Amino acid sequence: MNNPEIVLSQSPNKLSDLNVGACQPTLVSVAVGPFVNGRYSLTWDNYTVDIDFGDCCTGISFRMVQADVIGLPLCFGIFFDATLSFTKSGFEKLFLTSSDISLCCGLKAKIALELTPTSKKVELKPFWYGFSGCFSVYGDALFSAHTWQGVERWGFIVTCFYPTRGYFRTLTAFDPGEFWIDDSGNIAASKTQPSYYSSLFRLGEFEYLNAKVCMAGFCGGEVTFNLEGWFGSGTYLFGFRRFRFNFQVPITSTITLFCKAPWDSSKASPFEWFDVGWSLSF
After folding, report:
1. Quick check: helix, strand or coil at residue 281?
2. Which long-range contacts (CB under 8 A, 24 or more apart) does 146-151 make?
């Protein structure tokens, strides 16, 4: 068993380092203090099991268990990696991604399948050396009296990756109310809100841009800068309504400082909050 990872933050409702979301201060009957997440990892061969326990002033409780398997053989030399996660609410997500599949002329692709209790998504991700891209369309099949009536389109997303250096993605929504995002920036599309997800768009917004840049830190680890922007209707320059940034800098091998803040032009007071904190792992 590996040593547990402890993550601390003085602003639990803004914590974005955990893929299971932050604690909810509205559910806490006492003054909100530091949020502590303990992660215990079991690793053997190609298998890893992570178990999270959290404490947000109400005592330690179970948060999530996630199992990862690397290199499941399929056929024709193709392998799959699998991730299965559960929260205290039940099944959360099953994610499968293939190894590189050679097409032609140096072009390769990956196949990814994501299943949640309320959605399913299949992606073909073509890429080549130095750059890769992904185009996904979100929607649902329409049925009436067990008869297929067509396809409902919710929107589409285009993602451009630069290996080890980050990515850029843009999402255009025909139906913004169907899109959700968690604290780690993962996007889901479904008619009901998945656990630990919140609405991606606010009223009047329909386009989302996200750029993430990564580089090696001076003290080890990785410096990351994540910038998000939302566009929509209204009398705003180029339709730009709000943005949010998250800047993280490792100062030692175990301590990372972060700084983040949002800005919403549609509000009388656009500056919403400014969050500075640190995370500790050992």
Report:
1. coil
2. none
40 with 31: CB under 8 angstroms? no
CA dist 6 to 35, 65, 70, 195, Å? Answer: 10, 16, 25, 23
- Spell out where the chain has E strands: 5-9, 35-44, 47-55, 60-73, 79-87, 90-98, 101-104, 107-116, 119-128, 131-144, 147-162, 166-173, 179-181, 187-189, 198-199, 205-216, 222-232, 240-250, 255-264, 275-280
DSSP-assigned beta bridge partners for residue 263: 243, 271
Residue 26 neighbours by CB under 8 Å, 6+ apart: none
CB 260 within 8 A of CB 247: yes
* Residue 4 CB contacts under 8 Å (≥ 6 apart), including other chains: 38, 39, 40, 41
Least confident of 65-69, 92-96, 135-139, 168-172: 135-139
The neighbouring-strand residues paired with 200 are: none
> Which residues, listed in sequence order, are joined to residue 274 by a DSSP beta bridge?
none
Question: For 88-147, how does the pLDDT look when each residue is reduced to its tens digit (9 = 90+)?
Answer: 888 888 988 887 777 655 567 778 888 888 777 777 776 654 445 677 888 877 767 666
d(CA 136, CA 192): 20
127 neighbors 108 (Cβ within 8 angstroms): yes
pLDDT digit string (tens) for 206-264?
Answer: 999 999 988 887 776 788 999 999 998 877 777 888 989 999 998 887 788 889 888 88
CB 212 within 8 A of CB 187: no
Cα 122 to Cα 33, 96, 217: the distances in Å are 41, 10, 35
pLDDT at 282: 65
